[in-house]
Amino acid sequence: MKPEEITKNVFDMIGKQWMLVSATKDGKTNAMTASWGGLGVMWGKNVAFVFIRESRYTKEFVDASDKMILSFFSEDYRKMLGYMGTVSGRTEDKIEKAGLTLTENNTFEQAKLTMVCKKLFASEMKAEDFVSNEELDKWYKDGDMHTMYVVEIEDVLM
Ligand SMILES: Cc1cc2nc3c(=O)[nH]c(=O)nc-3n(C[C@H](O)[C@H](O)[C@H](O)COP(=O)(O)O)c2cc1C
Description:
- By secondary structure, this protein is of the alpha+beta class.
- It has one domain (3-157): Pnp Oxidase, Chain A, CATH 2.30.110.
- It is built from 5 helices and 7 strands; from the N terminus they run αββββαβααβαβ.
- The chain binds flavin mononucleotide.
C-alpha cells in the first residue's frame, strides 16, 4: 500500500487512537506510545512528523537507528497502548509483557497498519524558538524537550 492510499483521518489515527513508535538498536527493539505527530509532505516525500522527549528510552533506539517504525492497532489494543505509554523499557521488557510479537523486519505482528520509515531529520526544540511562552510553560516546565523527527514513509503494510 502507498501512503497516498491511507484514507483514515490523521487527527483520529494519531491523536485519538495513538500509535507505537519503535526502533531497533543492536538487535533490541523498544517501543513507546505516541499521540502527537502528523503525516504530510516534505522535500517532495511522504513523511511523518514524530516528537519524542529527551527522557524516553525509545529515543536512544531511534537515535541509533536510521529506521523508525510507526504501528497502528485496533481498539482491542488500547490497554496495551496505555501500558506502552506509561512504563519505560528501561525497567521492564515491555514488548514481551504486552504480548507483542516482533517480525523479522522489526514490525509488530498485531498491528493493523505499519509504516516503515527512514529518518531524514532530527532537531531538538529550543526554548527560545517558541513564539509565545504558552506552550513552553505548559509542557516544558521540567526542560524535558521534544526532538522533532521527520521520517520518510518508505512502506505501508496492512
Ligand atoms: C496516549 C499517550 C501518548 C503519548 N505521546 C507521546 C509523544 O507523542 N511523545 C513522547 O515523547 N511521549 C509520549 N508519551 C509518553 C511515552 O509513551 C511514555 O513516557 C513511555 O513510557 C516511554 O517509554 P520508553 O521510556 O520505553 O521509551 C505518550 C503516552 C501516552 C499514554
